[in-house]
Design brief:
The structure is a single chain. It contains four helices and three strands, in the order H-E-H-H-E-E-H. It has a three-stranded antiparallel β-sheet. Helix 1 crosses helix 2, helix 1 crosses helix 4 and helix 2 crosses helix 3. It starts with 8 loop residues before the first helix and ends in a 9-residue tail after the last helix.
């Protein structure tokens, strides 16, 4: 498994959706669960798969009408790395917000 070169807010949202799924989940369900557009989610899934964080497979149920679904599953190492990435991102975001709050000048009347 390779580390990701960057972890964006969208990546964190997709990782959370994958962790919350507790098993194989198809792409459109991840789009809905993450609240991100498909044009963001599918490239993230591809990047995660190339890095070895997850695996995917095509649906085998030929009796279901409609196009085949691609199911995604986090690897054990991918799940652990996802939790760590989410925690790290949350810590960094919280620290950034705290720094902004403490360094922002006070403005009389609360308006800038």
């Amino acid at each position: 498994m390779e580390p990701l070169s960057r972890i964006t807010d969208a990546t964190v949202d997709v990782l959370r959706a994958l962790l919350d799924s507790h098993g194989p989940v198809w792409g459109l369900a991840l789009v809905k669960a993450s609240g991100r557009p498909a044009g963001s989610v599918y490239p993230i899934l591809e990047r995660l798969e190339r890095a070895g964080w997850l695996a995917s497979e095509w649906e085998q149920d030929a009796s279901r009408p409609g196009p085949r679904r691609r199911y995604y599953t986090l690897s054990d190492d991918g799940a652990a790395a996802s939790r760590q990435a989410i925690a790290s991102r949350s810590t960094r975001t919280s620290a950034g917000c705290a720094a902004t709050a403490t360094t922002a000048p006070a403005v009389a009347g609360g308006l800038a």
